[in-house]
Design brief:
By secondary structure, the protein is mainly beta. Helix content is 10%, strand content 30%. Strand 23 and strand 24 form a beta hairpin.
Length: 483
């Protein structure tokens, strides 16, 4: 047989074509590692209100919260939670900063402890970049090692919301009847709404739906949730989004729109997704089920939904803003639900997608628990047009400016490092950093030549005419004299 001869040119073309196909398409969203796979089991990302420089990363089984400041991992943890449970679904699960954290230093932590209880505890930051235990808020024994919930977050009303699963998991559904059994006074399979600023350890906010009924716990806001694994508030509308881990039939995205009173029954365990599998809450006022806004099945190895966020950052164009991002733990698929309700694929981050997170600017992250190589990745464009990302750092220029990564001295929404002339004329015609007598001859020469050189215009075109001329003289003299 004759040997196969392939021209070197053809090989080069084939390799180049393969590289093009492998590269992310222009404008395609990707998840980019912030520090590399240096974490153990990262499980959440959060930032204090108004903080554009720090993200706090929760390590599920190490029981520590780490700080990444402007892309650098600080050497000491922000806080340490002792005696946590180490089961697969347990450990350090959630954290929320008080809306007035900058003033009172309060931060709230949810975790499962060594006694198999879901614990809500307040910590207080008395020194920069560290917090210590303060008040025990809640201790809820868990009947099993799965479906504990653990997300916590402050709503636009200033109250603390706490997601609690039915605490059972496993193949047997809801044998204890917690999903629809809140009339027994149980705090399972529900969302709690707490006033942490009034009462010890907390108060009940006015408007909690079960206040008039003695057989219910007043802290409950919504119920009928198997394992609400990651919830979030839309920072623009105030809507509450809930990713609820399903049982045999479906994974759910549930929605409690702002302004709708509490007391929504999301169906577990009389419904699994859109499938009715049993009898619902017998109490007439609360037996109507609010069905999910989206469900998906377990085909293709999908196993457990991971709820996410409505994107409100500034690194993506208007077509993406307002979309709800969510994913699946097993397959690592990430989707977005558009404001119109359509479901679009975004990316695949691989097995172990444990959580989404959001920073102070509204940018999104994922926590990936790859065995031995836990990773935290930020959502961004693969490439963006130069006109909106002039410094090619993966952020929109307006986002760089709002997050204080770039300055914008002249207020034209273009980072100063991308402009030859980032500010108003300063008279420094020789560009030595000072406006003094050595600039006079350079100015005179530019005016006499009616220069249109960008460097001359940057420092000496005081009248904005795009040419160096006599009307620029008063401005130059004022700059020279420091007036």
């Amino acid at each position: 047989m004759r040997p196969l001869c392939v021209p070197a040119f053809s090989i080069g073309v084939a390799v180049a074509f393969a590289l093009i196909l492998a590269a992310p398409a222009k404008g395609q969203p990707i998840f980019e590692s912030i520090l590399g796979p240096i974490f153990d089991r990262p499980v959440y990302v959060v930032s204090p209100p108004g903080n554009l420089h720090d993200i706090f990363i929760l390590e599920q089984h190490l029981g520590v919260v780490l700080i990444v400041r402007d892309g650098q991992l600080l050497p000491h943890p922000f806080l340490i939670v002792p005696n946590i449970s180490m089961d697969v679904q347990q450990g350090l699960l959630g954290m929320a900063f008080h809306p007035d954290f900058a003033t009172n230093g309060y931060v709230y932590v949810a975790y499962t402890d060594a006694t198999n209880a879901l614990v809500l505890q307040r910590y207080v930051s008395l020194a920069p970049d560290q917090a210590v235990p303060d008040i025990l808020m809640l201790n809820l024994p868990q009947p099993d090692l799965d479906a504990n919930g653990g997300w916590i977050g402050f709503g636009p009303d200033g109250f603390l919301y706490v997601a609690v699963g039915d605490g059972q998991g496993g193949p047997n559904g809801d044998p204890l009847g917690f999903g629809q059994g809140i009339n027994n006074g149980e705090l399972y399979a529900c969302i709690l709404r707490l006033d942490v600023d009034n009462g010890v350890p907390y108060g009940i906010p006015p408007g909690n739906p079960f206040l008039p009924y003695a057989m219910f716990d007043d802290a409950i806001w919504d119920f009928g949730l198997r394992n609400p694994w990651r919830c979030s508030f839309d920072r623009t509308t105030g809507d509450l989004w809930i990713g609820d881990t399903g049982w045999n039939n479906a994974e759910e995205v549930n929605l409690h729109q702002v302004g709708v009173p509490g007391g929504l029954n999301f169906g577990w365990a009389c419904y699994d997704g859109n499938f009715q599998i049993g009898a619902c809450q017998p109490f007439p006022a609360f037996n109507a089920v609010t069905l999910p806004v989206h469900v998906y099945d377990h085909q293709g190895g999908r196993c457990a939904i991971v709820g996410g966020y409505v994107y409100r950052g500034c690194s993506f164009p208007a077509g993406v803003v307002g979309s709800y991002f969510f994913g699946d733990y097993c397959t690592g698929e990430v989707w977005r639900r558009s404001p119109m309700g359509g479901i679009l694929p975004v990316a695949n981050v691989g097995f172990g997608l444990a959580s989404f997170g959001e920073d102070g600017a509204g940018e999104l992250y994922v926590c990936v628990q790859t065995p031995g190589a836990g990773d935290v990745r930020r959502l961004r464009f693969a490439t963006m047009p130069e006109k909106v990302d002039c410094n090619e750092n993966g952020w929109l220029d307006t986002c760089d400016i709002s997050a204080e990564r770039s300055e914008d001295a002249n207020g034209n929404d273009i980072p100063d490092e991308c402009e030859d002339c980032p500010g108003p004329p300063d008279g420094d015609m020789n560009a030595d950093g000072m406006t003094d007598g050595r600039d006079i001859q350079f100015f005179v020469d530019a005016v006499m030549a009616m220069s249109t050189d960008p460097a001359d215009l940057c420092h000496g075109d005081f009248d904005g005419s795009d040419v160096m001329d006599l009307p620029d003289v008063p401005g130059f003299v004022a700059a020279l004299l420091g007036i």
